Amino acid sequence: MPHTTTMTVRLPAPVKARLEQLAKSTDRSKAYLASQAIQDYLDVQEWQVQAIQDAIREADSQNPVFYDHEDVQTTLKKLTAKRRKTA
Q1: Which residues contact 19 (CB under 8 A, 6 or more apart)?
Q2: Name one GO biological process term (predicted).
Q3: Residue 1 resides in a domain
Q4: What is the pTM of this model?
Q5: 5 sits in which H/E element
Q6: How confident is the model over 7-19, as pLDDT tens digits?
Q7: Which residues constitute the domain of residue 75?
Q8: Consecutive H or E run containing 81
């Protein structure tokens, strides 16, 4: 079992009620659900921050690659049309 620690969190009453209801419905503890929610949130936020940092590094590099918005839209429309024809 991984090492765990205790943390106190203040929640708005409606959020606490929703958590209690979900815990009851899923037969899981509130602590388990809160821990899972925090882990999921961190995964998404860390990924997003890393993607932004990577994009900034690319933009600041010697030979950054940029694409015109309209060109991207045109390419995506062509790819979508091809997929629809083959589906």
Answers
A1: 11, 30, 33, 34
A2: regulation of DNA-templated transcription
A3: no
A4: 0.68
A5: none
A6: 999 999 999 999 9
A7: 13-86
A8: helix 69-86
